[in-house]
Each structure stands twice: as structure tokens, then as C-alpha cells.
Request: fold
Amino acid sequence: MKSITRYFVLLLIILVFFLSLNNLASGATSTQNIENTIPSIVWVKTYGQAGDDEGLSIAAVGNDGYIIGGGTETSVTHLDDSWLKRIDNNGVTRWTQHTVPLILDDAHTIVPTSDGGFIISGCTEPFGEHGPENAAIIKMDGAGNFVWNDSPLKNLNEVAYAAFENSKGMYIFTGHTTNTDYSVINPILGLIDKNGKILWVKTLTSDKPTDSQSIVETPDGGYILAGYRDVTGNGNIDAWVAKVNNVGELQWEKTYGGGKTDSAHKIIAGGEGKYVIVGETDSQGSGSKDVWIFSINPDGKLLWQKTYGGKNDDRGFSLTQTQDGGYLIAATTASYGAGKTDAWLIKIDPEGNAQWSKTVGGVNDDNANSVIEDGKGEYLLIGNTDSYGAGDFDAWVVELK
Reply:
């Protein structure tokens, strides 16, 4: 009888021991995942003068640093002056190129090209920041020298929000054209060859004000555009997505959203034929505006959608696909963080489920306009800060790892 009792006691001790090991291992793994997942700030750099400066776009240049683009408001003329900076892996400026007035005043996107240079999209403001705009596309070499520049429609009231080199080595761009009172807004897109010759420009005419802010190439040689449309004509905004063929002819268009203001700012290819779009919504979520991300198939069918935010305004501006197949969103939040607004990074899995988020900023307004993951697995965000730097708002770049 005693031997049987000793046997069960020993068995119970062994069972408790292994259960303890299992719980300890599970707890250690969970803690490790959290510690390894949320990145820490490696460095922060500001770029600016006495006036307002804004950082709009960033791209990795291989493993040898980054190219950033933005603009500054001069204190005398109050005309915007765009600039491009080549920075090293620690954010130290190697060179700065200020564009010539009437060529480019705002650099909305800057994208590396296969010849080692860059393609920049934006606009000029020949009559100042409150006057009409000209769309502008600029090609630069790797040293920051101008190769050519185009104003695609060569008239006022147009903006180019995005451009990139397509699979055939030519440059596709998108944006909008409008009348003087902005009651008519129509998307534009066009193709430019490697020498700067405009091959074609198309206007997607609609009876509803519609803006195109982002574009991605599709496997059939066409393109999908994303932006927003005033679906009622009186301010009820929905996200707008359109598919065109290789010469810019409309194949389909759809709107997404609810009864309030919803818009799309960036579209990327998400793998397996899917496309992922980020913006903000006032129709869903928990606050007045929430970060909104949704995925569609090649025909525009909604696959999934998610919102992120708190009780105040939270807006998504850009996203990039990460090496693990998920996505990283660059947003600005008034619900979380240390200041009035903070830059906000949200990491999600391939189905849009949140994995982690991090706010970056000080006591004033700090914003994120774009984000990338470089080849080393580090995250770089660019935006503008009123908490740090030399002027009112300064452009800033933050590296996290």
C-alpha cells in the first residue's frame, strides 16, 4: 500500500514539474515575441529652416542610404520650394538639390529608377500657395542632377500625386485636373518615355468630383488607380478605385465606403492577385475619423476591411508590404501618443489583423506621410514635426528597428 502511495506521489510531482516547465516556456515565448516585435527608434533627424518644411516621400537607394523629398515655404515670398536630399544610413545629408522655381514646388513622390536615378511627381505653384497649380514630372540622375522635366497638360489646375517606372521602362503618373473653383475634379494619368517625351495623357471624366492619388501596375500591363469621389456632389466622399488598360482606357471603377467621408490615399499590390488600399473613414470605426485599410481582388471585389483608431481623428496616408508578407501603415493619430497629433505606425498581418502599433512624436503636432521597409528590415518614416527641429514645422525622418 505504501509503495502504491509513493508511486502516485512521485507521479504527481513529475506531472507538476512538467506543467510548470510548459507554463514557463509559454510565458517566455509570449514576452519575447512582444519585445522583438515592437521596434525601437534608432535615430531621428529633422531637416528645415525658419519657415514650414514638410517631408513627403522617402525611398531606399539599395543598401546605401535613402532619397527624401519635400518642400519648404520661404519666409519672404511664401512660395513653396521643393527639395531633394540624399541621406546616408544614419540620416546625415550627403547632398541637397533645390528645384528651380516654376519647375517643382511640391515633391509628392520620389521613386528610384532602373538607371540609378529617380522619378519625381508633384506640382508647381507659379502664383503662390493659394494660386493654381501645374502638374510636374521630373527625372533626375543618381547625383541629383536634372535630366528632364515635364508639365504633362501644360495648363493650370492640375497635380501629379504619384509616378513610377513601369515594367517596360517608361514612366506612368496619375493625379487630377480641375477648374478654378474645384467644382469639377477629374483624374488624369499619362505615360512618358525614358527621354521625357509624353506618349499619352488621359482624363477620366466624371460628373462627380473625383481625385486619383495613387497608382499600381497590374499583371496584364494595365493599372489600378485609387483616390476618392464625391458620390453625391455635396460632400459625401467615398473611396474610389478604377482599372484601366495599358493605354489608360477605363475598364471598371468602383466606390467603397458608407454614408460619411471615406477616402483612399495609397494602393499597393499585395500578392496573390490582391490589392491593398489605405486611407481613412468617418463611416466606420470608433472615432470621428479612423485609419481604414481594405483589400480587393483584380475585379474590385472587396475581400476584407479593417479600421484602427480611437475617439479622435486618426488618418492613414501610406503603406508598404513588409518582408513577412504583412503590411506597415503610416498614419497620423490624435487619439494616442504624446502630443496634439503623433506619427503612428501600425503593423498588420496579410489579412489586416493588428500585430503592433507605435506612436512617435513630442508635445506638439507630428505627422507621418510615408513609410518604407529597407533591405535590412528597418523601417523609415518621413513626415513633419512641430515638436522638434529649427522652424515651425520641420521635415523629419525616423528610423526604427
Notes: The two ends are 62 Å apart (CA to CA). The chain is about 10% helix and 50% strand. The CA atoms of residues 346 and 357 lie 4 Å apart. The helical segments are 2-37.
